[in-house]
Specification:
mainly alpha; 61% helix; single chain; three-stranded antiparallel beta sheet; Arc Repressor Mutant, subunit A; 11% strand; 2 domains; 6 helices
Length: 127
Amino acid sequence: MYEIPKISNAEWEIMKIIWINPEISSINIIQKLKDKTDWKPATVKTLINRLLTKDAIGFNKLGYEYLYFPLVSEDECIKLESQSFIKRVFNGSIKSMLLTFAQSEEISETDIAELKNILEQSSKTKG
């Protein structure tokens, strides 16, 4: 079975750009990050190389340019990160996580209604 690579926070920034812009050059990645980070081009290229080593991205060579594309989907990575977060912070308990968010002042009544709807739909598809 294929294992989804663990992606660091900095690597996530690169992946978000590649997911939106498959077949993108490192120069364009650097340009898109310019306003978000103060990373030097060498830093961005190091992160790209890490993602290549982890088989999170691949590339096609076009002349002297390398065009990067994702080898893992954003949804797969989000699912893995979500599971890791729930295990690490809430000891694997989704119930604890939901209770924490529901009791938070930052969650609106609309958010709660949407969560209820999602949970109802999920239970219908499983039942």
